[in-house]
Design a protein that fits this description.
It is built from three helices and five strands; from the N terminus they run αααβββββ. It is α+β, with helices and mostly antiparallel strands.
């Protein structure tokens, strides 16, 4: 390597002492924006779709998925706060005018910003893992909708469920409303209409 190149690298190394903190601040702003976007996206998804989707899970799985998403939200918010701290420092910090004091403060601040960025990255990774875990949990515990759903209108109301058969005693259903799973026999004399149904809503 030539002497001019060596001198240039030495000059860059000396300049790095003065540019390292601003560069770390810029990196922190990128992490802050990314974590804020993830937090907003998670909030929107949970608000718009999460309630309906979670309601379809079994009780234990629903609680576990809700807790996992809540923990992910907390991690994203924590990471965002750490990134903001790294990007902008503490409010009300004194401006140091003495050279040596400023140098010591800069060295300490570089350490604090580096640690904050490291923890923000860990919070981001952990939050993403928790979101993925919640999605996998919902996927493996969601039961497939029953086949042959029918809606039966009787003289006393309406029933919806999986069609199991019919005979002299009436229409036999497996109740699919209200999370039930009991077998229902609707007497033939009370049945008015039987129609295919794509899904079962609340009983009426």
């Amino acid at each position: 390597m030539s002497a001019p190149t060596d001198r240039r690298w030495a000059q860059l190394a000396r300049e790095l002492e003065f540019t390292q903190l601003p560069e770390l601040r810029r990196q922190a702003e990128g992490w802050r924006n990314g974590l804020a976007g993830l937090t907003a996206l998670l909030t929107v998804l949970v608000t718009l779709k999460g309630r309906d989707d979670l309601a379809e899970l079994p009780g234990t799985a629903r609680l576990a998925a809700s807790a996992t998403l809540g923990a992910a939200f907390v991690l994203f918010v924590t990471g965002s706060v750490l990134a903001v701290r790294a990007a902008h420092g503490h409010p009300g910090e004194r401006v140091l005018l003495a050279g040596q004091s400023l140098r010591r403060w800069t060295e300490q601040e570089i350490g604090r910003v580096t640690r904050a960025l490291r923890f923000a990255a860990l919070c981001s990774a952990a939050g993403l893992l928790l979101v993925a875990a919640a999605v996998v949990l919902a996927w493996v515990t969601t039961e497939s909708p029953p086949d042959h759903l029918v809606r039966v209108v009787t003289t006393s109301g309406e029933r919806c469920g999986e069609f199991l058969g019919s005979g002299p005693d009436g229409v036999v259903l497996k109740n699919a409303q209200g999370g039930g799973d009991e077998r229902l026999v609707l007497p033939a004399r009370t049945v008015l209409t039987v129609t295919a149904a794509g899904s079962c809503g609340p009983a009426r």
